[in-house]
UniProtKB/TrEMBL annotation:
Species whose genome carries this gene: Halalkalibacter nanhaiisediminis
Descriptive protein name: S1 RNA binding domain protein
Span of the signal peptide: none
Biased composition (Basic and acidic residues): 75-94, 131-157
Occurrences of domain S1 motif (ranges): 6-74
Length: 165
């Protein structure tokens, strides 16, 4: 008997693995039902759904050149077609002058400088800052951050007296 893609056949489960079940088809050939094709819902353990010796209706999904046969139990089940989803309602348009201004997604904002507002403008010269000035500014910022963190952690511990040794 020739096995064709799309045909529905009755088979017998001959083996179960963690990734699927082997089903013996009429004519002596064997195909694999992958665990994702056993049921419509998620199957964590195939042993909860199938047992060796079960008779199942399968649909032939594919037949590879090397003789491997892909099967599906869930596609073999006749279910009524789901009704099409109704169209999504269109978003109501905003009246002019309310909410955010309408502009193209990638257009430039009129009141912001180019480059995201960071650093000097492209046509302006950058003031030269010495390494020592940069270092002193960094140290000042760093000390402020550390003192803020210390104050926050001490308040969470209940103050200076709550330290454990």
């Amino acid at each position: 008997m020739s096995i064709e893609v799309g045909s529905k056949l009755q088979g017998k489960v001959t083996g179960i693995t963690h990734f699927g079940a082997f089903v013996e088809l009429p004519g002596g050939s064997t195909g694999l039902v992958h665990i994702s094709e056993v049921a419509d819902n998620y199957v964590k353990d195939i042993n909860e759904v199938l047992k060796v010796g079960d008779e199942v209706l399968v649909k032939v999904v594919n037949v590879e050149q090397d003789g491997k046969i892909g099967l599906s139990i869930r596609k073999a089940q006749d279910r009524p077609d789901r009704p099409d989803r109704p169209e999504r309602p269109a978003r109501p348009s905003r009246p002019e002058g309310s909410g955010r201004p309408s502009r193209p997604f990638n257009s430039q904002r009129p009141n912001r400088p180019q480059g995201g507002g960071r650093g000097p403008r492209p046509n302006q010269a950058r003031p030269t800052v010495s390494f020592e000035d940069k270092m002193s500014r960094f140290l000042k910022d760093s000390e402020e951050r550390i003192s803020t963190l210390k104050r926050q952690t001490e308040s969470k511990r209940g103050g200076r007296g709550a330290r454990r040794g």
